[in-house]
Amino acid sequence: MIVGVPREIKSDEYRVSMLPSGVEELVAAGHQVLVERGAGAGSGIAADEYESAGATIVERHEDIFAAADLVVKVKEPLPAEWLLLRPGQVLFTYFHFAADEELTRNVMESKITAVAYETLRGKQGDLPLLTPMSEVAGRMSIQEGAKYLERPQEGRGILLGGVPGVAPAHIAILGGGIVGKNAAQIAAGFQADVVILDINVDRLRYLEDIMPANVNTVFSDRHSVREQLRRADLVIGAVLIPGAKAPQLMSADDLNLMKSGAVIIDVCIDQGGCAETSRPTTHSEPTYIVDEVVHYCVTNMPGAVGRTSTYALCNVTFPYVLQIANKGLANAAGEDRGLAEAINIQDGRVTNKAVAETFHIPFSAVT
Predict the structure, then answer these.
(1) Does pTM top 0.85 for this prediction?
(2) Is 69 a catalytic residue?
(3) Which of 31, 96, 170, 295 is catalytic?
(4) Superfamily of structural domain 131-299
(5) pLDDT by residue (tens digit) across 147-161?
(6) How is the chain split into domains, by residue range?
(7) Which CATH number, 3.30.1300.20, 3.20.20.70, 3.40.50.720, 3.30.450.20, labels domain 2-120+306-359?
(8) Residue 96 falls in the annotated catalytic set
(9) pLDDT tens digits, residue range 351-367?
């Protein structure tokens, strides 16, 4: 099989979808690997490292798509890449279709098979390819929140941990999953006053057991969310419904409850965001202000720490890349139902129920 690794063209995206060690394993298994020159630069991996591992270095972005049977990326294809997609080709990457109808319909028209990292299920029913990036984003959310709470960034001028005689920041984390857990752990280390909200009581019990004393848990409902918005200096949006659009927990009117200069870090912006006022931003222009509340809605937060994120991502994605290359997607998915769940679009048909329901598109089972 010919496996292609293109350079990511999304703004401020520094990750790459494969390490030289992965290239070496694929080549040893009899596959050809094409790597676009500069693909690993943002992660500190030079072209000659890929070449030494057995890759063929390709100069032009479009040549990767023209030749590869399996294209492995990090982020969804951008409009400039839609016309490069070929019927029958397999594209393995993050898609987050439910947040973008235009992307969904263009991928359908391309007749490729879209295999989405974010809906692949592990043996325990977890989301193993989403987990490491959720860990990175959760930890980053606190350091970004700390920065944008500073007055020069138009925040409230709050130090997360306070100082003796001055109260610490109050942080409300909406969602107690992987993102929320990692955000709370970092925030606790800053000695902030932290509350995690979730609708899963068993998860709240677990978090209560493992978190330090400055982290508390609250059952999430409309009343408790609004109460936390009143108190919060920093709000972390960390809710997830796998494959579906994020639930909207904060309305535009809710911003009137918040303090001037408070900050919202909407980590779930990839899935549409959990605030009505959230809209995608980039690392180059990460924030905007609505009703005196700072919004940070960068869609590829882990991309800023490309080296850490690349290694964390490739550690979990590569076994599936090798499986698909060795067996073909149909056979690999037939043997691994969790991989089958990652097939969101197949030959122009939507094969993920959440995506189909979001856009009122007929659902088809994977064949």
Answers:
(1) yes
(2) no
(3) 96
(4) NAD(P)-binding Rossmann-like Domain (3.40.50.720)
(5) 999 999 999 999 999
(6) 2-120+306-359, 131-299
(7) 3.40.50.720
(8) yes
(9) 999 999 999 999 999 98
